Amino acid sequence: MSNKITDEDIEKAIVKLKPVFGIKPGIYLTVIYSIIILLGLFFILIYPGLKNNGSLVYVETLPGDTAVYVDNVYMGSTPAKFFVQKGESEIKIEKIYFKPVIMKKFIDGRVFGSVLFPKKLKIIHDLSLIDPEGFLKDRFKQLSSFGLIEDYYEHYQMPPLVSRTVSEFLSGTKTENNKILYDFLYSMRVNLGSPEMVLDYMKAISLADNPDSSNEETDLSIIPDYFQKEKNSEGLVLGIIKAYPVNQRKNIIESLGKIEGVHTILNSLSQKYSDIQISKKPVPVGEKIIINGMSKFIGFSSGSYLSGPPLVESTDPLLDDAILVSFPHIETVSDFYILEKEVTRKDYLLFLNENPDWEFENIDNLIENHLVTKDYLSLQDFTDGEKPVSNISWFAAKAYCEWLETKLPPNLSTYRIKLPTEAEWEAAAGFNATGTSNNIFLEFGVSAGKSTDFTRIGKAGLYDTMGNLWEWCDNWYFPADSVNGSFGLAESIYEGAEKAVRGGSWANSEKEIKVSTRGSQNPAWCTPFLGFRPVLVRK
After folding, report:
1. Which of 255, 232, 263 is nearest to 327 (CA)?
2. C-alpha span between 249 and 251 (Å, rounded)
3. pLDDT for the residue 366
4. The predicted structure's pLDDT at residue 70
5. What is the DSSP string of 61-77?
6. What are phi and psi of 194, to 5 degrees?
């Protein structure tokens, strides 16, 4: 007889629970299920409130993107949401240049149902701008970096930083006296380097004029209204045109030409500088000054000159990048003396001997203070002292000038030594270039700046103003400064992101470098293509 269990046996089987301690199954199962349900409700409705008894805190500020701390622990930036345990807490809201807000808050809590119905605390606070000048200077420098970027892409877009700056300034000052803001916006024109920045700039202007306006759309039609208060409307138009790619400029010019008051400016730009007569130009005066027994400076008289590339009749300057970057304009300089050659390794070694802070051995400290990069003084063989020193940052060049100034004799106590402005450099190099030959540009076998020799002297008696090494200039570089009338940003509190450089180097083709050619570098950068040549000017 087989004991195998069949499907029929399973179907007929009856399962019966036995009593436990005399308690019938129906009773103890009910108790077990009740306990499970109660435990579930406890862990859902009560336990979270016991473990984390507190409130969800929401913080909103005007302006936004403000750091929030609870008991000195960073919780995020506004608009922020975070949980705080029940009890007394210190909440600090902090944004640089704005007055910090510190408040003591008793954070309440809820034990029952805290997951489903959490206790909430909402904090809304307007911040006061306590250092408006510092705020605008910092933003200007940030915007100068963005101004150097000509092209943006889908995954790399320029933030609306100009309009955001205006919005945050207005929310933090609560005043109708916004002269400093309008000065900022006027200076900002030199940073217009892309269509994205142009449109954000126009939005910022609209916002400054109408803080309560809810209009988010801004286009170039705002220009006529801005002309009424604008000191240099022509420069603004040129800056806008220059910010657009060449293949879009004709359409932009056409659009601007339809705006009342703009077409007259556009119609006259091509011929504006062709008939300029300058009575007094800066020229060498024949006077030379030798400092410290080794630095010979050649004097130039004060005067004005037409800066920039020559205008060619067949070329539309508004469609020519080479012209718009160094747009023809009048530059005026006072008397100055400029070093006849680029500072040599021998000269720089004297500086290092008296200024150990600038020695290569101190490079980690210099890098930490953002004064140089890791290539500072690299590849410099100081036994070959007549070659121009390279791999020098703008800050190092400036320190050298300050050191050399201490060597001035008593009869020159009213003078100072500094790096040349672009206007001073171009005045000297422009006159000098007419007699220059054998410039050091890109050629086979050349891999560094060469020593000065008498085959490369120009009409003014200067060596290697073109080629050999790019040379640091004193002023900041801005993409649209020349179309606004001068290199850099004269008499301004604002700093840029990069310093101007001039002259080209041994790594450039001679065809691509003219006296008017401009370049720029981060002031801390040290490259083998870059040196410097100081000037001597009255204090």
Report:
1. 232
2. 5
3. 97
4. 94
5. EESSS-EEEETTEEEEE
6. -155, 160
Residue 274 has pLDDT above 70, yes or no: no
Here the tokens at position 532 are 């410097």
The tokens describing 47, both together, are 């336990």
- Output b/e per residue, 511-525; b: 16+ Cβ within 10 A: eebbbbbbbbbebbb
* Confidence class for position 492, pLDDT limits 50, 70, 90: confident
What does the block give as tokens for 414? 């009213």
Nearest to 333 by CA among 429, 422, 424, 417: 424
User: What backbone phi and psi angles, to 5 degrees, belong to 209?
Assistant: -80, -30
Question: Residue 77, exposed/middle/buried by CB under 10 A (0-12, 13-18, 19+)?
Answer: middle
What sign results for the dihedral spanned by CA atoms 517, 522, 526, 527? negative
Angle, CA 302 vertex, CA 296 and CA 303 arms, to 5° = 135
- Report residue 373 CA to chain centroid gap: 18
Q: In terms of pLDDT, which residue wins out, 507 or 326?
A: 507
Q: Write the burial class of residue 186 (CB in 10 Å: 0-12 exposed, 13-18 middle, 19+ buried).
A: middle
Q: Following CA atoms 204, 210, 215, 221 in sequence, which dihedral angle do they give, to the nearest 10 degrees?
A: -70
Q: Which residue has better confidence, 474 or 255?
A: 474
Taking 60 as the threshold, does the pLDDT of residue 74 lie above it? yes
Burial of residue 304 (number of CB atoms within 10 Å: 0-12, 13-18, 19+): middle
- DSSP three-state, residue 123: strand
The mean pLDDT value for 377-396 works out to 92
Q: What is the pLDDT of residue 433?
A: 83
- CA–CA dist 333, 485 (Å, integer): 14
428 in Cβ contact with 534 (< 8 Å): no
How far from 15 is each of 8, 12, 258, 404, 517, CA to CA, in Å? 15, 10, 94, 105, 98
Indicate if the pLDDT at residue 436 is higher than 70.
no
Nearest to 114 by CA among 53, 61, 38: 53
User: How much is the average pLDDT of 351-358?
Assistant: 97
Dihedral sign for Cα 70, 76, 78, 84, please.
negative
Residue 336: pLDDT band by 50, 70, 90 thresholds?
Answer: very high
- Predicted TM-score of the model (pTM): 0.84
Could you tell me whether strands 470-477 and 530-531 are parallel, antiparallel, or unpaired per DSSP bridges? parallel
Number of Cβ within 10 Å of residue 329's Cβ equals: 21
Q: Rounded to whole angstroms, how far apart are CA atoms 486 and 505?
A: 24
* Angle subtended by helix axes 179-188 and 132-147, to nearest 10: 10
Local confidence band at 111 (pLDDT 50, 70, 90 cut-offs): confident
Is residue 482 within 8 A of residue 326, CB to CB? The reply is: yes
CB-based burial label for 199 (10 Å; 0-12, 13-18, 19+)? buried
